[in-house]
Amino acid sequence: MSLLDALLRQGALRPIDHALAQSLRRLDGGGTDDRVLVAAALASSAVAQGHAGVDLARPHLVCDAAVDWPDADTWTQALRDSRWVAQPQADAASVPAPLAVEQGMLYLRRYREYERRLAAGLRRIAAAAPDGAGLDALSPLFARLFPRARDGTTADDGGQARAAALALVRSLLLVTGGPGTGKTTTITRVLLLLIAQAALAGRAPPRIALAAPTGRAAERMAESLRAASARLRASDGIDAAWCDALPDAASTLHRLLGTIPDRPVFRHDGNHPLPLDVVVVDEASMVDLPLMCKLVEAVPDGARLILLGDRDQLPSVEAGDVLAAITDAAGEGEALPAAVAQSLAPLLGDVPIAAGRGPLAGHRVQLQRGYRQSAALDLAPLADALRSGDADAAMRRLREGLAGVRFHEDVADPLAGASRDALLSSWRTLMELRDPALALQHAARLRLLTALRDGAQGANVLNQRIEDALAGPQRDPYFHGRLLLITENSYRHGLFNGDIGVCQHDAAGIPVAWFAGGSDGVRGFHPASLPAHTGAFAMTVHKAQGSEFDTVWLLLPRQDARTLSRELLYTAVTRARCELHVCASEPVLRAALARHAARVSGLAWRLR
Ligand SMILES: Nc1ncnc2c1ncn2[C@@H]1O[C@H](COP(=O)(O)OP(=O)(O)OP(=O)(O)O)[C@@H](O)[C@H]1O
Q: Is the ipTM above a cut-off of 0.85?
């Protein structure tokens, strides 16, 4: 039996992956090398699993079937000999073959192009270092914003001052850090510094846009920025006119780039760049390879791009692990190249120096210290244990108890038993609310998160059961108070994968699905006109990325599953603002913490 047939028989390929291989075979009159067909099918399957391509030395990362994989060298040679596979030089555009092999990686041509164009775009932005002139004039304001900046890099602001100073002399900057490490607070101060710098030099204020991959993440970013700018306004010695120039709204990346109804391209691209001087993107770990490529190409020459994110979270659902790759290429960021350290001396004093390697060296700061202390929820010790995969510490933290954290050990069904009423009563309130904005606010109070979409513990079945309990088995599919989750991007509606809505019946009993946005703060749609959607009382951790909820119930499956990883657990628990409940067994928690949600990508080497 051929390897392709063996994979198909084991259920390791989707019909569409197999169809791609078959169409190549047919076009060749049946004579294509089986190894080329398998590679084509794997490249297609890889993208569906979030990888950019297949590492030919480690095909099991894409497909864990029990087969003997071809040896990487002979496999690569067979691919090189095939008319379906291009072998582009690094940085050269792909020739029109459906597959490309480069540096031991096999790609579908389109994804290799996204990677190449993204790397070129990031290098272009990084190379345009802003003029460091005028830093002296800014130092009084800088010292007011970061009074401990000159204490050295171990100053107890956890790196915020260094991030802000670097933003003044870098056009590409990554600010990474866990929840509450002050990413938004720092960026607000950076924007204030850029506004002040322009004012002191007699220039117009910079044109700034804030964006995030989902509507909810954009709203959260705007809320945090408004709070941070209110604090600045209240501080002594900060010019109110500078505060007035701070942005107070954020949009989705799709809206920023300008969607064109029913087309996968945007109004802004390399030929029609964004009319902006500064683009700040929050939740960058959620941005996939195609979208990051399109964003970077639309950033005009000379403009700044600042990416904020938490690299320990799950990578984007769609292909690419873009933030992790850029972070790896940029290095730790504790030390700076000598010239940069020297130019920032007026602001930071002495900074450790390191020889920068690669075009992105010294373009990243990792914020270390968490500031969001809540007496109600002491999440940090558990989040740290999960992030580092320390299963013993995680079990200890869960069992000993932390403020706001409840461990329901071995509970596999939170919709049964004592927890059922606690969950349902919050959702029943939604069925009583009449105001869509209030209902959307209430919707963010509680979420049941699960690792799986299908099966008894998957989001689909849990939603069915919750909806049955709330509105009965004969329910109206769009009953008053039902929560909806959009599962595809619709440029026509301005609704995107991950957006949450609530159904309400108007005075005439007509159902309307309400979503955040629009000039009134909410937008209503007839449910029949909505793009693909599902219920949202329970949702997968993947879909919850970029959102926070007052109370999170996390349900792990009875048995280990491939989707479980330390990144999934870390992402899930850090969605909670006030209260976290974890329903899981020790063996499944341990198995999850032993696994990484890493993605196969060639972006890091392209950026070195
Ligand atoms: N240097 C600081 N000193 C005191 N408080 C701070 C400092 N930096 C941030 N904070 C506070 O910590 C909280 C979280 O800050 P912020 O929202 O900027 O973090 P974040 O990293 O953007 O969070 P998230 O991960 O939720 O996006 C805010 O209440 C903010 O006021």
A: yes
